[in-house]
């Protein structure tokens, strides 16, 4: 398509085919696709390039005469989704202008399908904001919210995802280029005039750390600080949800890791999400760095005891050597990730992740979840099948 216009695409489930029309002057072409279905209607924003890959053709840019007008189909959408559509239709992406309206603020959630992201979406909804979930697979939209399809490596799609949002949650992926991807996102956010960025980092992020992931997080934190963007950093400790990776051997009554008897102030990812929701929606957190932990530091043997108690059967913790751990996971994880995981566990084993912080309670106004709460709520995962 030769014009400089973006495209607004509405899939009207009462009509056949796509309704495609220009929506604003911008070199980045985006599209909004709403899917049929009762109740909450997921809205998916897709870069035009992706649409082309999926068979939307140039000729489709002319609205089919038989299709209902786009405005009709908007009437069936939730109010927040209509507002998002209206913004794109009018080309408005000035955040102050948005804030001066009665529309609830819009928060972009990256990693929306991930451990924290998936818990953050309902937490944000409880705060009354409009959620825009950034996803990679348009076939798997997050129900009940606006979805935008973007890979962090796709600058045009990320810029479109950021358009008009009032705050964004940046959750880096577990990939070797995680730092570069997050820095790219932050640069685009800065260029787009994003009013607030909440960055998910990690406990003990440090440029001199022996753990590569902590060095990468420190690099991203430093870059974001240097941009002068309104931002807040969250540094969670090891998620209790990481135990789900051990479900296979836990089903056999044990799990192992090279951590010895060291205590770790593990945190429930739901608390990370709840804290993030507070920071994304409330004032007074600019420039803050919050380290997020559980209410106490526990050894892996104590974690095993909590799982045993919740599952009603014995689950043992086996301390392993780093070599045994690596050998067991070789072939399951790429070398960079396996080596990074071994570095992570060595850091835990040295007792470097045992300090308890009160940030979760301070931010949310209630105590952080304990390992016993996690074990109780996830007992089904750890019950022998
Ligand atoms: N795990 C822990 O205990 C822990 C503790 C502290 C901090 N952290 C930090 O948390 C972050 C997330 O790690 P995690 O293991 O918990 O992963 P996760 O958030 O559960 O999953 C990664 C998420 O990122 C998305 N994603 C992956 N590659 C992407 C890309 N190129 N562009 C856009 N989105 C992409 C995935 O989407 P798809 O569904 O499309 O794959 C998924 O939603 C990391 O920075 C990690 O260091 C983790």
Automatic annotation (TrEMBL):
Keyword Lyase among record annotations: no
EC number: 1.7.-.-
InterPro entries assigned: Ergot_Alk_Oxidoreductase (IPR051604), NAD(P)-bd_dom_sf (IPR036291), NmrA-like (IPR008030)
Domain NmrA-like per the UniProt entry, residue ranges: 106-320
Biased composition annotated in UniProt, kind: Basic and acidic residues: 87-97
SUPFAM superfamilies, alphabetized: NAD(P)-binding Rossmann-fold domains
Chain segments carrying region Disordered: 54-80, 87-106
Keywords of this entry: Oxidoreductase
Record's compositionally biased regions (Low complexity): 67-80
GO molecular function, one term: oxidoreductase activity
First-level EC class: oxidoreductase
Transmembrane stretches, start-end: none
Protein name: NAD(P)H azoreductase
Annotated organism of origin: Actinoalloteichus hoggarensis
Lineage start: Bacteria, Bacillati, Actinomycetota, Actinomycetes, Pseudonocardiales
Primary gene name: azoB12
